[in-house]
Structures are given as structure tokens and as C-alpha cells.
Specification:
The complex is a heterotetramer of chains A (336), B (328), C (324) and D (305). Chain B has helices at 47-54, 81-87, 99-102, 109-120, 126-139, 145-148, 158-170, 188-205, 216-222, 240-245, 250-257; strands at residues 3-16, 19-32, 36-40, 62-71, 74-75, 92-95, 176-180, 208-213, 225-230, 233-239, 307-308, 314-315. Chain B is of the alpha/beta class. Chain C has 324 residues and is mainly alpha-helical. Chain C contains 13 helices and 2 strands; from the N terminus they run H-H-H-H-H-H-H-E-E-H-H-H-H-H-H. Chain C has a two-stranded antiparallel sheet with strand order 1-2. Classes of the chains: A alpha/beta (336), B alpha/beta (328), C mainly alpha (324), D mainly alpha (305).
Chain lengths: 336, 328, 324, 305
């Protein structure tokens, strides 16, 4: 096996939302208390990603999948853990030392209406990052590169003098992809890149992403909630629940027979085109907030197979015979 | 079965500053008592505005320019404001898309439930209204409803709020529920629960349901019949299973083929080229003709009416012989 | 909710301390207390002796501590002009100003709410258009000009209303009120109308724009879809949500209104705090200036804190979760 | 494509062409500003020149009233100065102070709003608390206090000499919170948008992101607020001058003219107060109407209060 492109080790990201000192003061039982409110968005996540591979992170809203992608991109500093790119630590680098990695790692965003600056022409949106990283380029070279990328994403070089509001959602998403590609990255975090698009446009963008991956041997970290899309294009999938990874496996193995009870519930909930009434597995209760994480296994409150150990002890990912990793005491013990 | 609702040749226009725009162009469908119908299409196809036109609540500057909405013999498009109000929320209830935005943040759930009852039954006592509200909350599986009744919307999660909205819809035992993308803002596991709940309630209460959504798979689970909309017109109608298994209109075919489920893992998807035209520049002839892979000369000049396709589903497409166009 | 209230009160205290620092700074930089006490015919040595005695040579923080301690006991120094404790002067003048603010707030609230709601729910009605046109003219006329025009028309030309003073004042407890006599009402009419002349159109516009925004909200559309009557949707669903931003702005604008009392009282020679303040400025009466600053500061902070709490009571998100 | 062509296609121009009130307001404003800029050429007299003032000419009514004189179209004030000229010069001062104060508060408020809003944290908390304190006192009160204290410190005579820069400072400083709050509000809204994250992913420095990516998107609220604030600043200056805390009577602004005329209305010389008052209202009203038009077009989120 080749060396991983990206390695994430025991990554934690908590957000302090307690506000100023005054907002932290609480009053309970006749006493003043100072409480900090932490959103524990990402907890102890580890995985590796190989060059040219698509690794998908799925989960429901609030499970921390987007935070994970953004922390890897350096948009949020992690609280602890390591992020390695081709073996080099990239977490906690200052602006200057991070710059070379910015060319290698790019990102495509969810909302095509917010991800392009409304006051910048397409030429500026694409040209600014290119010139920033390649100050030696002259105007002609910049223009050639922009035209080239525009054609690659199925756009039209004529577009570049226009403003974002003149384009449809699908076209904007193509432009966003072009912006990511223009600095020649090896690795792209795609944060729900198609969920804001209509069905017939989704297929176009997915095809484009798959084409580009083949052409440039791109590695994708694909963050999504749509399981059928994930099943279609990923090599490996990680399922997240409340900030933790419950199951991580090759796509085929996972979708054929999910092992973690949460993965099972999630998959049974996908509406299938053919097949009428669903056989969906109903979960009790609701997703707890990431502010007060449950003890032990974060899923224990809703799990049909819960026992005392699940309440007390946090399960670690362990590798099964088929190569998948599952964080579940029940699976480990052979109960499930 | 008795006919509950008949929408006929509905034309909805928007009077914009820059001129009039047609949002739906002659939409027709019928719904029997207790029937569940899916209204499917991409954003801008006119499905939501059609749903709102049934209760005559299109946002300004939209208005019903032509056609009728026959609800148990009354034309809702022409009925007066006062009479319409006695039907809205009473005999026809609506479920909105985003449960986080739908409930009034400063009123308790109880107030928002009982006010509907009092509005439609002015003589009803407070105690009775409260009991009905509790009963409906139990029907949608809200735990400890007595406590919940006095709480405010922000104390509920999205999935719970959508249940409450369904409970509000049930309050007056309506004959028809119109659900506009009721699960788009929710997670899959919750979506599945809400959809199951809707099916269950429609069956036990014998209510009609119009489910407006972009998600073919959801429609496939919930409804018996389906109407596919494209650029302001219904392009295909028929029993849900049949439409999904053997779509007749090239747009429906393309839409289903484009889903990842329809292709093998890792393969390119069968995309439909181009995008849906905006309301301002709908092409002449069949609105789908620039994107259609089976386009003919006639498609560019003549707008096809609905006609039976190979399996009997109605499709608005020149591929099938005209002459037996559905009247109404 | 309790936590929320405590936070607000602590914030208010911090603001009052900041104001007191400003007041202290003013006291230090304006006027020389020795000259007031001793006159100018005192030798430099005696002067120095007095400085030491009065603690004027102490480090500033000790002096500030003393200032704060005195202030907490209600002692804000002695007015140079009145030769009386400044607090006493302030308390004597305060009722006039507070009554003026009260009557004009009444005018603003009683008129802006119905007019604002009307122009929001019937934006195309002739009367709404007239209101909008009139209100923009209203906010463009300075308060003192309105006051002068009123004096010219109603006092000088028509002779209907008195142009200055409070008229007959009745003492109720320690509070001299003009609101119990017809003469008092005649006198307060013009000043209070003038005082509300900018705030009223401002509030009509504010209520209108907030309400129109609320009327666009999804939950209002849903209320219509439930078949609710117009009255219920407008006055219960929409108005309650309109109230929240209006309350916040109302607190801030009350501060502006108090600033405007200085202008109004100057025109009408209304014997209140604003008039007293301008006199104190002319006479460089530093203790009185500082006392006024402290008094107004405490009133405004108090009002803002109360407004915040009312906001918290109306808004269930704060009342229940205690967060903001 | 030229910027000119873009503007002609824009929604702003489209709406402006259809709004008669906006067109009229802009026209009035342009005329008033033109008169102010060229005051020395347009005004019939120089009100600052003692040689041109004759106390014998005091309180002459406007030409259409009994006793009016052709030499003084709008009459004279209590010192015998030509009303028309004094008003033109007064308006000039009001506009200079208004624009100057807004320029100052805009620079202060926009910088604080941009950087505090983007970075958040203690800096942000400090400035926003300061803004809170100031706002709870109201901008006018702060301005009145600052003027009163400074006048007490430097004395009335010296105060007259530095009145213009001082008023710019006082009004500018008293109103920065409005800008800071508004800009901060839009920065917070913009900061959440993904194009900012895209710029960070591109590796841009935060100063570059703030100034080149976010700032252009806060321009429309700034523009709308600026028009409102010019009107506010002109009104504040008038209020201060009316209280005798602003421009001295030998270099009057519209506010001090109204003040000086006030005592004469009881003797029937209404024009000394009313005419500058009318001019002030026309000036403020045209700015406000224009601001209203811009607000309708851009519909920005402004800080209320």
C-alpha cells in the first residue's frame, strides 16, 4: 500500500459558544456558577486517505462531518490531534508555512449562491487565488489558465467577465470547482457539493467530479448526507454520529451489510425507488445535543442493543475480518 | 370512489414589474377521497405554487389567471375570501416545508393549536379544544403532550416541530392535506418517520394527500399516483409504481436514470444536459425539447397535450399518437 | 431568566461605573474647587494647605474612591450657583422633565402603534402613503424648530397656549406635578408635542417596516393557511413579533428623547433638568454638570435594563432558555 | 464592459429613473451643494466682513413684506446682516460639518466594525460594550456633553475659533457606534458565507479577506447609512448651535441663526428664525428622501436605534 496522502489522528474540535464572561455566569441553587458551553463537534476521529481515492463522510445534520472537513482544511484550529499531509504535520501551522499546502488542498462548498463573492467577476474569483500562489505569471498566462480550467469544468471562457448572479446554481457550482482546480490541487474537500442542486443538475456535477478525478488523480473527501450518492462514488465511507466515527469501511462491504446499529438504522431509512413500503428501523428518542454528549457510546440512548458497558465505556474502532472498522461493543462482543 | 378534488386547466401568473410571467400553464389533475398523490418536479417547475393555489394562497404578485379548483363541487378559485377561510385549515390543511420557520416563535404550541379549533368552531369550549389538541399530539406520537402543550416552538427539535405541524393539520379532521416538501429540511431517519406517519394517518383518517416534493424515491414510498411537472406543466401522470418502473415522458425517464441508484457503482451517471428554463424564457413547442434526447421537429413548434403512452400512463410527448388527448 | 436578569444588572453596574469615571474626570478638569471656596485673595501657601486638607493632592484613584463613596450616599457636591447640594437641585427639577418625557412617550406610544400597524397592513392605502410622506417630513424638522414654530403660531399669533413655564404646579409628596391642573396641561401640551415630533414619525416608520417584514415570514403564511381571521393574524401573530425589535429600539430612543428635552426645555423655558443643565453650562457649574450626567446616566441605564427585561419577558427564547 | 454601461443596466439606475421624488431630491441637493461650494461668488454680501454690515440695517423684513428693501431680498438679521448671504454661508458651514463628521465616523466605525466583527473575541467585545454605553446615552447627549465640557474648559472665546473642526470631532465621535454596529452586523453575516471560507482556503491573509472580499459587500448598507447620518449630523450640528454649544454668532451655521432669531420672534421678526429653519428643513429633507430611496433599493440590514 502506498503512503497515505492525508492522515488524521485522534482529531478533536470543540467550539466554545459560551460568549463573554458575563454570559457564562449562571445562577443555580442559590449560587453563582461560571459555566462554559462547549459544542463537541468532532471527537477522536482518525482515518487515512490515499491519493486518487474518494473517501466519504456521511451522517445527519449536526454530526460534525462538515466541521471535520473544515478542520482538515485548516479553517478551524483543532483542539487536539494531528493532521498530516504526505507525512508532514499541517495543523497549527502559521499562515506563511501553510501556504504551500493551500495549493495542494482545496475545497468545494455546498451553497453555490454563497460560495462566490457577489462583488467579484468570475475572472477575479479564479484569477486572484492563481496569482496569489503564482506571482510570476503574466496576464496572458493567467488568462490562458483560466480559460483552460473553465473548459475543463464544462464552462465557457466567455463567462469570466460576468458576475456570479448571472449564473444558475449548477453553473456556479462548476465555477466553484474551477476555482478549486485552478491552483492544481491533489486533494479536494467537497462539502455537500450537490445537495443544493436539482436532481438533473446533481448528475451533471457528480459526473464532472468523477471525470476530473480520473483526469487529475484527485483525492476527494466527500462530505454528504445523501447515502445513495455516497454509495455511488466513494471508495470508502465513514459514518459519523454525534462527532464520532461509528463505522468505516469500503463502500461495497458497508452497504451490503452495515454492522453498527446506527449505520443499520440510517440505511434502512433511505427511501428506495422501487419496493413500496419501507422496512425502516425506527430509532427511539432524538439525537442528543453535542453540548452534553452521552457517556460511553454516544449512540447508547437510542440503540436497540444497549447494555451497561455501552453506557459506561466509550467503544473504540476495531477492525473486523472484512477490513471494516466498527466502534461498537456489541459487534466486538459478537452480540450484534 | 368519490372525487375529492379536481384541478382543471390551472393557469397561474405572476405580475412582475417587468411584465407577466406564467408559473403554471394549464395544470390538471384529480384526487379521489383518501387518495395520495405525488406532485413531483425540480425547483421552479411550479409544483409549490400549484399546491398553494388550491387554498388560494399564492404569494403576491401571483394570481390564478384561469382554470378551476373543484373541491367537492365548489370552485375554490372563485369562492369568496370569507368562505375560503372556512375551508383553509379546516377542510384542507397544509404542511409547510421548513418546520423551523413555520411555527410562530412567540406563541405556545397549545395556543397555535387551539386557535385553529376556535377559529373554525367558535362555540367550542377551551377545555374541549385542549383535549382535541392533546389527542392529536398523541396521534403523532409526541411524548407527554400535556407538558408539551404549554411549550414554545424553540423547545422542540425539527422533527418534533414537523410532527406538531401535522397534528395541527389533523385538528379539524380535514378531507385533504397538502404537504409542501414536508421532509426536505429534515434528516433521512426523521424523514422516514414523518412519511410513515403521514401514510398511517391518511389511511386511518381516510384523508387525501397531495405530496409536493422533488424526491422521486419519497413519492415512490408514499403515494399511489404521481404527476410529474416540468416548467409549469404536468408532463406525465399515472400510478406511482408504473411511472417509476416505466416512465413514458423523456423527462421522467431522464430524471430517474440520473439517480445514482440507476447506475452501477463508480460509473458516470446518465445526466440530462442543460437545465430547466426559467419562467421567462420557456421555449416554444414542448418546453423540454432543448434537453430531450428524442427530440423531433414537431417538438420545437407544437406543445404536446397529455396522451396515453405505451403503458397507459398519460404523457405530454409527441412520441405517442395524439388524438386521444385527455380532456380535462 | 434569573441568570439573564443578573447578567443585565451586572452590565448596568459596569456602565454606571464607567459613567462615574467620566463624571469624575469632568469634575477634575472643569473649574477649581478652591477658587469657589476661598476666592482669589488667598496666598499660595494657604492654598496648598487647603489642597492637602481637602485631599486634592491624593493620587487620583483615592480621590475617585472618595467621589464614588460620596456619590453612593447621594452627595454629588455643591452647586456653585445655587449654593445647595447638587442632588437636591436635581431632585427638585427632575419632576418637570420626567412629566414632559412621560406625556410625550404617551403621545408616541398611543399614536405610533395604531398608525404603524395600519400603514403596515394597508401599505397602499391613501392614508398610509400620506403617513409615510408626512413622517419623512416629520423626521426632517429639528425638535427646536418645531417648538419655535408652535410658539409663534399658537402663542404669538393665535394666543391660545402659553409659551413658557409649567403653569400651576401642585405638590404631591415631594413631587411638584403640573398634571393635576388644567393650567398645567395647557402648559405641557406644546412642549410634549414638540418633544415627540421626531420620535413619533420615527416610530411609525419603525413599526411599519418591522411589521411588514414580519408579515412576510413563513409563520404568517402558515397562519393564513390555518384559516385564521385577519384580526388574529395581524394583532396576535404579527404584532407580537413586531414588538420585540420595537422594544429594543424604544429603549435606545428614550435616551435621544432625554437629549431632546434639553432643546425643548430651552425653547419653552421649562424649569426642568434640561433647562438647568444649559444654565449650568453657561455658569460653568461643574458639580451640577457632573450631577446631571450621573443622574441622566443612571436613569438611562435603568431604563435600558428594564427595557431589556421586558424584552426578555416577551421573548420566550430568553425567558425560558435564558440565553441571548 | 465599461462601468458606465454596467451602471446604466443596474437596478439602482432603473429604480431611480422611475422615482420622481428621488430625482427631485437629488436635484435640490445638488443645487444646495453647488450654492454652498460657490458661496463667495453667489452670496450678495460677505457676512463675515464687518465693513459690509451696518447695524442700522437690522431687522429689515423680506422684500415682500411691508418695509422690505430690494437690497436685502430676504431681509436682515438683528445685526444688520443680509439674511440670504448669511443663510448661504450658514448652510455651507452646516454641510462642511455634516460631511466632515460623517467622514470621520465612517472611517472610525467601518474600521472598527470590519476588524472587530471579523476577528471577534475581546477586541470585539470591548468595542461593542463601548458602543452600547454610548448608544444608551444617545449620540446627541454625548455630543452635547462633549461640547459643554470643552466649552467650559477652553472658554467661549477660544471655542469660537476652533468650532468647525471641534464640531466635526464631537459629532463624528458621538455617532461612530451606528456605523460600527451596522458594519459589524453585515460582517458577521458575510463571514458565515462560504466565499469567505473559500478565500481562506485560497490562503489569503485576513487583512486581504476583510478589505478585498468582505468590505465590498458591506458597501450598500454603508451607503444607505451614510446618507441618513449626513442628515443626522446636520441636525446635530443645528441642535448644538441652537443651544449655543456650536458655531458662534459671528460665523453662524443654520442652527446658530435660528437661535439668534428666536428671541426676535416675539417682536414679530419671524424671518430671522423661520428662513434659516426652512432652509435647514429643505436640506435635511432632501437628504432623508434620498436615503429613503436608497434604503428601498438596497434594503440593507441597518442597526436600529
Amino acid at each position: 500500500m502506498s503512503d497515505p496522502l492525508l492522515t488524521v489522528k485522534n482529531l478533536y474540535k470543540h467550539f466554545d459558544i459560551s460568549g463573554g464572561f458575563l454570559d457564562q455566569i449562571g445562577f443555580s441553587g442559590g449560587k453563582f456558577t461560571r459555566t462554559r458551553t462547549l459544542v463537541k463537534a468532532v471527537n477522536n476521529i482518525s482515518f487515512e486517505l490515499k491519493a486518487g481515492e474518494t473517501f466519504s463522510v456521511v451522517g445527519e445534520s449536526g454530526c460534525g462531518k462538515s466541521t471535520l472537513g473544515r478542520t482538515i482544511m485548516g479553517l478551524y484550529p483543532p483542539n487536539s490531534g494531528e493532521i498530516l499531509y504526505r507525512g508532514d504535520r499541517i495543523d497549527g501551522l502559521d499562515h506563511q508555512r501553510m501556504l504551500p499546502y493551500r495549493k495542494k488542498m482545496q475545497m468545494v462548498f455546498q451553497d453555490p449562491y454563497a460560495s462566490l463573492n457577489p462583488r467579484k467577476t468570475i475572472r477575479q474569483a479564479l484569477g486572484d487565488p492563481l496569482c496569489y500562489h503564482n506571482p510570476q505569471l503574466n496576464d496572458g498566462e493567467v488568462k490562458d489558465r483560466i480559460d483552460e480550467v473553465m473548459l475543463q469544468v464544462g464552462g465557457d471562457p466567455q463567462w469570466i467577465s460576468r458576475m456570479p448572479h448571472e449564473f444558475s446554481g449548477g453553473q456556479r457550482q462548476r465555477i466553484s470547482i474551477a476555482r478549486a482546480l485552478i491552483v492544481d490541487p491533489e486533494f479536494v474537500v467537497a462539502d455537500e457539493p450537490i445537495s443544493a442542486l436539482d436532481v438533473s443538475i446533481q448528475a451533471q456535477i457528480l459526473n464532472l467530479m468523477m471525470d476530473l478525478q480520473q483526469q487529475y488523480n484527485l483525492a476527494y473527501l466527500f462530505v454528504a448526507h445523501d447515502l445513495s450518492v455516497v454509495e455511488h462514488l466513494s471508495d470508502r465511507v465513514g459514518v459519523m454520529y454525534l462527532g464520532t466515527m461509528c463505522e468505516l469501511s469500503e463502500t461495497g462491504i458497508l452497504f451490503e451489510r452495515p454492522r453498527h446499529p446506527y449505520t443499520q438504522a440510517l440505511m434502512s431509512a433511505i427511501p428506495k425507488l422501487t419496493g413500496g413500503a419501507s422496512d425502516h428501523m425506527r430509532l427511539k428518542g432524538e439525537v442528543p445535543t453535542p453540548i452534553n454528549l452521552p457517556s460511553g457510546c454516544v449512540f447508547h440512548g437510542r440503540c436497540p442493543h444497549v447494555n451497561q458497558r455501552c453506557i459506561d465505556e466509550i467503544p473504540q474502532l476495531c477492525t473486523l475480518n472484512d477490513g471494516r472498522q466498527v466502534a461498537c461493543h456489541g459487534v466486538e462482543e459478537g452480540r450484534i | 370512489m368519490k372525487k375529492l378534488l379536481e384541478v382543471k386547466d390551472l393557469v397561474i401568473k405572476f405580475a412582475l414589474r417587468t411584465g407577466e410571467v406564467t408559473a403554471t400553464n394549464g395544470v390538471s389533475f384529480t384526487l379521489k377521497k383518501g387518495e395520495r398523490l405525488g406532485l413531483v418536479g425540480e425547483s421552479g417547475a411550479g409544483k409549490s405554487v400549484t399546491g398553494f393555489s388550491i387554498i388560494n394562497l399564492i404569494s403576491k404578485p401571483g394570481y390564478i389567471a384561469a382554470g378551476k379548483v373543484d373541491f367537492l363541487g365548489e370552485d375554490l378559485a372563485k369562492i369568496g375570501d370569507e368562505k375560503m377561510r372556512s375551508i383553509r385549515g379546516n377542510r384542507i390543511s397544509m404542511i409547510f416545508q421548513d418546520p423551523m420557520m413555520t411555527l410562530n416563535p412567540v406563541l405556545t404550541i397549545g395556543t397555535q393549536m387551539t386557535e385553529t379549533l376556535h377559529q373554525h368552531n367558535p362555540q367550542m369550549g377551551k377545555e374541549e379544544a385542549r383535549n382535541i389538541a392533546l389527542d392529536k399530539l398523541r396521534k403523532v406520537y409526541i411524548p407527554s403532550p400535556e407538558k408539551r402543550l404549554d411549550q414554545y416552538p424553540h423547545e422542540f427539535s425539527g422533527g418534533m416541530r414537523q410532527r406538531i405541524i401535522i397534528a395541527i393539520a389533523l385538528l379539524t379532521d380535514p378531507e385533504l392535506i397538502i404537504a409542501d416538501e414536508p421532509t426536505t429540511a429534515l434528516d433521512v431517519t426523521i424523514q422516514a418517520e414523518i412519511m410513515e406517519l403521514l401514510i398511517e394517518l391518511c389511511e386511518t383518517e381516510d384523508m387525501g394527500l397531495i405530496l409536493i416534493t422533488h424526491d422521486l424515491a419519497v413519492v415512490g414510498q408514499v403515494t399511489q399516483n404521481i404527476a410529474v411537472m416540468y416548467a409549469g406543466s404536468v408532463v406525465e401522470k399515472g400510478p406511482t409504481a408504473q411511472v417509476i418502473a416505466e416512465p413514458q415522458h423523456p423527462y421522467t425517464q431522464g430524471l430517474i436514470a440520473a439517480l445514482p441508484q440507476s447506475s452501477r457503482h463508480g460509473e458516470r451517471l446518465n445526466q440530462i444536459p442543460g437545465m430547466m428554463p426559467t419562467l421567462k424564457d420557456i421555449p416554444p413547442g414542448c418546453a423540454f425539447n432543448p434537453r430531450c434526447n428524442q427530440v423531433m421537429d414537431i417538438c420545437k413548434t407544437e406543445t404536446p397535450g397529455l396522451r396515453p403512452g405505451k403503458n397507459g400512463n398519460l404523457a405530454a410527448c409527441h412520441l405517442y399518437p395524439p388524438g386521444q388527448e385527455e380532456q380535462g | 431568566m434569573i441568570a439573564f436578569m443578573i447578567r443585565r444588572i451586572i452590565q448596568a453596574l459596569i456602565v454606571i461605573i464607567i459613567i462615574s469615571i467620566i463624571g469624575f474626570a469632568i469634575k477634575q478638569s472643569v473649574g477649581d474647587p478652591l477658587r469657589e471656596l476661598l476666592g482669589i485673595s488667598v496666598s499660595a501657601e494657604e492654598r496648598e494647605e487647603f489642597r492637602e486638607k481637602l485631599g486634592l493632592n491624593d493620587p487620583w484613584y483615592i480621590q475617585y474612591g472618595r467621589f464614588l463613596g460620596d456619590a453612593a450616599r447621594g452627595d454629588l457636591g455643591t452647586s456653585m450657583f445655587y449654593k445647595r447640594p447638587a442632588t437636591e437641585v436635581i431632585l427638585e427639577k427632575a419632576p418637570a422633565t420626567l412629566e414632559l418625557v412621560f406625556v410625550s412617550s404617551l403621545i408616541i406610544i398611543l399614536l405610533s402603534v395604531p398608525l404603524g400597524i395600519f400603514s403596515a397592513i394597508k401599505p397602499n392605502a391613501l392614508f398610509s402613503r400620506f403617513l409615510m410622506g408626512g413622517s419623512i417630513v416629520g423626521v426632517s424638522i429639528p425638535v427646536f424648530l418645531t417648538a419655535i414654530m408652535m410658539v409663534y403660531i399658537f402663542s404669538i399669533k393665535l394666543g391660545w397656549l402659553p409659551s413658557y413655564g409649567r403653569g400651576e404646579v401642585v405638590m404631591v409628596g415631594g413631587w411638584g406635578t403640573g398634571l393635576l391642573t388644567l393650567d398645567g396641561w395647557k402648559h405641557i401640551l406644546m412642549p410634549s408635542v414638540a418633544l415627540s415630533s421626531i420620535m413619533l414619525p420615527l416610530f411609525i416608520r419603525l413599526i411599519r417596516s418591522e411589521m411588514m417584514e414580519v408579515l412576510e415570514a413563513e409563520y404568517i403564511k402558515y397562519a393564513w393557511a390555518k384559516g385564521l381571521a385577519h384580526k388574529r393574524v395581524w394583532f396576535v401573530h404579527a404584532f407580537k413579533n413586531t414588538l420585540l425589535p420595537v422594544i429594543t429600539v424604544g429603549g435606545v430612543q428614550l435616551g435621544v428623547t432625554i437629549a431632546f428635552t434639553i432643546l425643548t426645555e430651552t425653547v419653552f423655558q421649562w424649569q426642568g433638568l434640561g433647562f438647568m443643565f444649559m444654565e449650568a453650562v453657561e455658569r460653568s457649574d461643574a458639580p451640577l454638570l457632573v450631577a446631571y450626567l450621573m443622574f441622566v446616566g443612571i436613569v438611562m441605564v435603568g431604563v435600558n435594563t428594564i427595557v431589556d427585561m421586558i424584552y426578555g419577558l416577551v421573548n420566550p427564547t430568553i425567558r425560558i432558555a435564558g440565553v441571548k | 464592459m465599461s462601468t458606465h454601461g454596467k451602471f446604466k443596466d443596474s437596478f439602482l439606475w432603473y429604480s431611480f429613473k422611475r422615482d420622481k421624488i428621488a430625482i427631485a431630491s437629488l436635484l435640490v441637493l445638488v443645487v444646495l451643494i453647488f450654492i454652498s461650494v460657490f458661496a463667495p461668488l453667489i452670496a450678495p454680501y460677505n457676512p463675515y466682513d464687518p465693513e459690509m454690515i451696518d447695524i442700522m440695517n437690522s431687522e429689515i423684513p423680506p422684500v415682500w413684506e411691508d418695509g422690505g428693501e430690494k437690497a436685502f431680498l430676504l431681509g436682515t438679521d438683528s445685526q444688520g446682516r443680509d439674511m440670504l448671504s448669511t443663510m448661504i454661508y450658514g448652510m455651507r458651514i452646516s454641510i462642511i460639518i455634516g460631511l466632515g463628521a460623517v467622514a470621520l465616523q465612517a472611517v472610525l466605525g467601518v474600521l472598527i466594525g470590519l476588524f472587530a466583527g471579523y476577528h471577534g473575541g475581546r477586541l470585539d467585545a470591548f468595542f461593542m460594550r463601548a458602543a452600547d454605553v454610548q448608544l444608551s446615552f444617545s449620540y446627541l447627549m454625548v455630543a452635547i456633553f462633549m461640547s459643554a465640557i470643552l466649552q467650559a474648559i477652553v472658554g467661549v472665546a477660544r471655542f469660537g475659533e476652533i468650532a468647525v473642526p471641534f464640531l466635526i470631532l464631537v459629532i463624528g465621535f458621538s455617532q461612530w457606534p451606528q456605523y460600527a454596529r451596522t458594519v459589524r452586523g453585515s460582517v458577521l453575516a458575510e463571514r458565515k458565507k462560504e466565499y469567505v471560507e473559500a478565500a481562506r482556503v485560497a490562503g489569503f491573509t485576513s487583512a486581504r479577506i476583510i478589505l478585498k472580499q468582505i468590505f465590498p459587500n458591506t458597501l450598500s448598507p454603508i451607503l444607505v447609512l451614510s446618507t441618513i447620518q449626513v442628515a443626522n449630523a446636520v441636525m446635530s450640528e443645528a441642535a448644538l448651535s441652537f443651544l449655543g454649544l456650536g458655531m458662534p454668532i459671528d460665523r453662524p451655521s443654520l442652527g446658530s441663526l435660528i437661535n439668534s432669531g428666536f428671541e426676535y420672534i416675539f417682536s414679530g421678526a419671524w424671518w430671522i428664525t423661520a428662513l434659516p429653519g426652512l432652509l435647514l428643513v429643505i436640506l435635511v429633507l432632501s437628504i432623508n428622501m434620498l436615503g429613503d430611496f436608497l434604503r428601498d433599493v438596497f434594503n440593507p440590514k441597518l442597526y436600529k436605534g
